[in-house]
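Provenance and format

Records in this collection were gathered into a single text stream. Each protein contributes a sequence line and a token line. The two records reproduced below are adjacent in the stream.
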Amino acid sequence: MSRPQDPHRPFFPFGNPFRMISSKGSRLPERLLSLLISFEETLAERVRKLIPKDSDEVLSLSWMNLAMDSLCETHSGVKNLITELEIPVSDWDEKWIDVYLDISVNLLDLCIAFSSQLTKLNQGHLLLQCVLHNLNSSSPKQFVRARSSLDSWRQHINAKNPRVESCQSILDNLVRSLDLPKVKNSAKGKVLMRALYGVKVVTVFICSVFAAAFSGSAKNLLDLSISDTLPWRPAFSDLQANVNGEVRNVFGCGRVTVLKELDAVAVSIKKLYPMIQDGLEPVEVEQFKKFIIDLGKQEEKLSEGLDRLTKSVDGFFKIVLTGRDALLCNLRETGTESMVGSNSEQLVGR
């Protein structure tokens, strides 16, 4: 349940995406219907794989890595669908191009924000390495240095990241883009727009969870209301309910940080910190050593998780970027770039 001070932001789509396929006189040819069904079944299966088996998975770096890898596969899948639909860029409606390009810009901005936060967290790794090095010394001066490094780590981790703070407005832009442009007299266009709708919904939701985790604010979470007629809706609803519910529970319990691996490091530090204030009593030495070993293990898990997630976010950035660049190149080659005028110019300059 969400807390009163953290109201979630519902979204109700203005139209039924399924209506584009089933309206009178617009039944899809068998080949196109088969492509759409296959795409949506695959989307549903990817979503089901992200449903956490237990609450400990939510907001763990391993789950976030799985989610980002799933986005990479989904966006690669829609690129393949575009190829299979055999829609020349010259046949694309201006509104389709605007939708595709606007979304890509927002996704690239989110990737930059996420990468910025991951870089920041990785920089904290160096401070923890200094802490561990100093704590393995018996010199009282080294304990003072270790305590200073721990203070610096806490300040570094708790400092706000302006790029992450901007995620909410970017997510709002993406939510507004969920309303699909109308497609007339193009069966292929209807398939494309409906497939893009599914991709957008899943992408916006996962990015909202990332933004919440990195910003430490449940305000970034989204609750998206999806038409019952969409075949991937049950899996998505289960995923959204499970993940959002647990994220809000985590925010409500007052943890130092919501990322599981980062919180484990913070807990280890909390145990160690009082023991290096004024030196060690002999009876505390063995317990002190155990705490150091535990911190080392938790720090290693955090570092490995951050490295994997950084690579996944970079991979997603490249997929979005190459897809956008390929479309812009095709627009130039076919002389249709003028159709999107200022939008294209903005994108080329970014």
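Adjacent record:
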Amino acid sequence: MKGDTFQIFISMIIYMAVVLGIGLYFAKRANESSENYFLGGRSLGPLVTAMSAEASDMSGWLLMGLPGVAYWYGLSDAVWTAIGLAAGTYLNWLFVAKRLHSYSVIAGDSITLPDFFSNRFKEKNKVIMTISAIFILVFFTVYASSCFVTVGKLFNTLFGFKYQHMMIAGAAFVLFYTYIGGFLAETASDTMQAFVMIFALLTILIVGTSVAGGVLAVVENAKSIPGFFEFFGIASPTVVDGSQQIINGVPQFGEAGEYGLYTILSTLAWGLGYFGMPQVLLRFMAIRDAGELTQSRRIATVWVIISLGAAVALGIIGRSLFPTELLTYSESESIFIVLSSKLLPSALAGFVMAGILAATISSSDSYLLIAASAFSKNIYQHLIKKDATDKQVMNVSRIILVLISIIGIVIALDENSVIFTIVSFAWAGFGATFGPITIFSLFWKRTTREGAIAGMLSGGIMVFIWKLVLKPMGGIFGVYELLPAFIVSCIFIYAVSKMTDEPSLKIQEEFELAKEKSSEK
């Protein structure tokens, strides 16, 4: 390992040691009870709530997936995705946060999302809880695999280590400190990592723009590529045998593709996913005081806008500085690594690229913990062993953590996996399964248990049908699967709720109480 590379390696190892220290620090408190382990005892402050929510949400996708899209296809696809996500972030914090926090306390002091849905509709046979837990297990396993792919690509690109070995090592590291520290370790480290991520993005943005000759030079280069710097067009790299063609040192592009209104609406639909993201919704439930959510919303929105904007810009800058460096879509997701390693001093590059680790760790720990809690609390304790002690629940949770990690590793074994593609599928799954029912549960008193079940099943199943069966047909079916699945779920919730008996008086009274409580703060 060369001297510069060794310095980068040491910087990243030091960073990982700090994260591990956080897990060990919170281990004792986390093990006091399952509420502490899974929800931190509802003790989060506004800064930690905001920063941990956004860091856990963005993952390595922010530093690798999104810049990769901008590097490969240009501005439109990346920027419309970013706009949709920024709008979704703000609206979720504005409308859902306070109501969910109040309602989760009133509805049996729920500490997981399946808990809340089940308690909201006063279930006896726990059908909603089981369906919720199963979908969380499925989609978070896929989500965790995308994080493992990120780690593998990072260390493979930087140090030449075998992708599979590094991917497994990264998964083992995340598993270990989530295993011992639980939700408190996760949120504390996520907060620190949110700062690392935005520092990394802004550092490379400033340095990259300067080296490229300034903003005007970057824009001029982008405009020279057909469709690359357009809101309503998209670049079309000329690919031969899987790689972009290079002639006389110049990457080749075909004619610009169209990026019409239908495609824009499809891309903006990414924002709908926020209403069903368990890792974000859980933070709303965990804050110590709902009155502090306004401050959290402002922090989260500013962080998201800056981070997404910088990530998109890095892809454009990367195409200007290193136009022939990355010749496949999968490789393009390494543009942040290339920029960092080639533009910064080694020690600083190591710290900046720790931002990728930060993004990856902050998401994968959330995914693993929520998926484990979905099984241990909602299936094991409520269905398999109803008299399970707190200690037994936590032990089962840790077993599930290991199993989910193993499955995620198997999914991530292919080093040609595209992070953006994996994340987009899991994002659609959560958005369509939980987004509509979250909104209807919080804001429509007439929502029934039967409507909730129909909405969750139809939304989750439609994601698979649209992605695997309809989308390959192209044309009008080429839309991102989240949009049609979200709409189908809403239709089923409304129609089935109207066709079934009104909720009981107790459910309606709790709804009004939650509404009143959330408006007071």
